[in-house]
Amino acid sequence: MVTVQVSDFDMRKIATSGQCFRMTEWIARPGHPAYFEVNAIGKLLQVRQEGDRVHFFCSDDEYETVWRNYFDLGTNYTQIIQAIKRKYSDDQFLMNAIEYGRGIRILRHDFFETLISFIISQRKNIPEIRKCVNFLSSKFAAGEHPLSTQGIGNGLSTGSKFPSAKQLAASEISEIIGCGVGYRAKYIHEAAKWYSEFPGNWESELSGMGYERAMETLMKIYGVGPKVANCVCLFSLHYMNACPVDVWIQKVLDQEYFGNIPQWFSDPYAGLIQQFVFFYKRNGMSTLFWA
DNA sequence: ATTCAGGTATGAA
DNA sequence: TTCATACCTGAA
């Protein structure tokens, strides 16, 4: 186990911030602190947080080479947030959102899984998205060696890896439909072909070409529009200026900014700010307020 | 039964 | 360019 002390890290907020769909909170035993199971980048990990101390149930080596980067723990969020608060101090809604959402970090999630997850996300609610992602994973991982991790309290926990692009590209559309994704199956299949047929490395190409060109490139994929492309840019490629506009952010624009585009939209950290705003609007505000 | 859920492709104005 | 509409599917 590795224990680190970090500020601006809240495992529960991260798990429910909607960046990825396979982080689950478990209660080991009533009265005991909750722990989180993270199924990501081909690994399974358990995490428990007590205040600003975070326990990662893995080796030192795995923490350093995998999870530190995944959770973006090398970035000083406290400093970034202070700068943002100074910059937009006259935006009271934003100040409230930041305080409410503090602790969320922008992950560096697996590229292909992020792409497929957000293709699935269109016209679906979050429990449905989670179900589809899990269904795809368990279906295509059948027969493979399951992921496992040394669980808290000596329990051994298992899970399945997200399918590879090659697996999905080689599968029949009907198999993909069978995972409950409906009309998105052909999008998934196309995206899988697009990814697996590229001779180079899409991640490094897209990371290197800059936000604008990455967006253009991603939106050429059948079934990928501006929202999905922005989510991939932000949650996987770590373009912190990428700012996905979904129904919740649209609500914010309509209701809090009266249809105008707020200043922070073009901030270099617009994506991080968007996460705070999204989280606040979705979880922190009573809808009865202005009903 | 009808509507809705973290959008996108398509075709018409 | 902008706008309306269909789209799988399950849950309220």
Major sheet details: 5 strands, antiparallel
Mean pLDDT over the full residue set: 94
How much is the radius of gyration in Å? Answer: 19 Å
Q: Which regions contain 5 or more consecutive residues with pLDDT less than 50?
A: 287-291
Explain the layout of strands and helices.
Elements (H helix, E strand, L loop, with lengths): L1 E4 L5 H5 L7 E4 L8 E6 L2 E8 L2 E4 L3 H11 L6 H11 L4 H10 L9 H10 L5 H15 L6 E4 L5 E4 L5 H6 L2 H9 L3 H12 L5 H7 L2 H8 L7 H10 L11 H9 L14 H15 L7
Antiparallel strand pairs: 1-5, 2-3, 3-4, 4-5, 6-7
Helix pairs in contact: 4-14, 5-9, 5-12, 6-8, 8-9, 11-12, 13-14
The protein binds a DNA duplex (13 and 12 nucleotides) through helix 6, helix 8, helix 12 and helix 13.
Question: What would you note in describing this structure?
Answer:
The longest helix has 15 residues, at 126-140. With 291 residues, this protein is α+β, with helices and mostly antiparallel strands. The protein starts with a strand and ends in a 7-residue tail after the last helix. Strands 1-5-4-3-2 form a five-stranded antiparallel β-sheet. The protein has a two-stranded antiparallel sheet with strand order 6-7. The chain has helices at residues 11-15, 60-70, 77-87, 92-101, 111-120, 126-140, 165-170, 173-181, 185-196, 202-208, 211-218, 226-235, 247-255, 270-284, and strands at residues 2-5, 23-26, 35-40, 43-50, 53-56, 147-150, 156-159. Helix 6 (126-140) runs antiparallel to helix 8 (173-181). It binds a DNA duplex (13 and 12 nucleotides) through helix 6, helix 8, helix 12 and helix 13.
